[in-house]
Amino acid sequence: MNQAIYNFAVWLDTHGWSTALHESFYLYNWIETTHVLTLMFSLGLLFLIDLRMLGLALPGIPAGDLARRLHLPMLLGFSIMLITGLLLFYAIPVRTAQSLWFRMKVVLMVAAAINAWCFHHSMTTAGTGWDTARKAPPALQWGAGLSLCFWMLIVVFGRLIAYDWFDCRTGPPEPFATLSGCINEQTHY
Ligand code: HEM
Of all protein residues, whose CA lies closest to atom 2 belonging to ligand 1? Predict the structure, then answer.
């Protein structure tokens, strides 16, 4: 599995566009800045909904209403995060694919996506009686709490990608070398 991921990343690394993006004076920084600033429209709106479900913010606003009205702008924010994230990956594919932090971030993003799906399912089956209550029904509170935890960890791991503590180039000890995807005799870093 690590060999296949490495081979795919090396293939991306041979692309002229990948090198051009990585070596660009402005473009890479603009993409990363957009990746960071769009946190406001993605996680900023999501956290408002989660905190409302937990009864910790905006008690006067019907919770279901808030979630429905913020859904589209939030999805737009996440789409921009996804596109800029894929471009950041494409610019430095080998190092990113072998970043322990990036891998943990991807695992948590999958978990957060599954949690979001369950949350929306619970919201459609919860009816409407709870809308103006201070706290949402327990299933939605659990979903909101898990969402806050997953996304805060994703932000921390995203920030740690820049640090080379377990980079394959540094020869990290096991199990970090395997978890990071380091392979023997690799030629690209
Ligand atoms: C949608 C949810 C996402 C969130 C909340 C998120 C969050 C973050 C954060 C907070 C950083 C640190 C930025 C900095 O301080 O420099 C970051 C960096 C990064 N993200 Fe994301 N990210 C998301 C999606 C993605 C996706 C889908 C990918 C790629 C498939 C990705 C790839 C990266 C990379 C490669 C970096 C490192 C950039 C660098 O340090 O040079 N992100 N992300």
Answer: 81
Three-state secondary structure readout of 101-124: HHHHHHHHHHHHHHHHHHHHHHHH
Ligand 1, CB cutoff 6 Å, lining residues: 32, 35-36, 39, 42-43, 78, 81-82, 85-86, 88-89, 96, 102, 154-155, 158-159, 161-162
Token pair of 73 as six digits: 């702008």
Amino acid identity, residue 61?
I
Say if residues 171 and 77 touch (Cβ distance below 8 Å). Answer: no
The answer on pLDDT for 187 being more than 80 is no
For the record, the structure tokens of 61 come out as 């606003």
Pure H helices in the chain: 2-13, 16-23, 27-37, 39, 45-53, 63-91, 93-97, 100-125, 138-160, 176-180
Q: What is the reported pLDDT for 139?
A: 92
Tokens of 181: 């995807």
